Amino acid sequence: MAGENSLAGCLRRFAKPEKLAAKEYSCSKYTKAHEAVKRLSIRKLPLVLGFQLKRFEHKATSKAVPKKIGTPVRFPASINIAPYMTLVMNNSGKDEASSYPGLETMYDYDFFAVINHEGQMDNGHSTNYAWLHDEWYHVDDEKSPVWTRTAYMCFYVKCHLDYKPYVKPTYRLARD
Asked: What distance in Å separates the CA atoms of residue 94 and residue 107, rounded to the nearest whole number?
């Protein structure tokens, strides 16, 4: 499916509701077993947002060495994280004006670094590419493209920093 091998596709799968069978879920509130829905979301945004991609597959029934996943994943130059936030998900379906608490730009991040791993799980070599002064640099300053099958972590920095060292931060509590 087009776009699914992208960071946005990974985030959509991360936040997709997952049905849990009665035998997979128990709750002290109910005495009788019942089905439930689990949904993951991001509660609080950091200044630097890191994503770790699943790059090894472990077969529970096999004693074989974990298999490396080499599927290329595209990282956009910038991303808006609002659709994956707890507050936004809790407000979805309500008044559109209130679906993005605060300024929409507060959810924007710019891509600035990626860590790659070549080799297997128990051995290999890691490299890093970072964006500096409008160019991508390899850790040894060798210019290199970012598109890679070996990426396993990528980093985004918040676009609009509202840093006020003299003000005590306050947070709006999100209820699940």
From this structure: 19
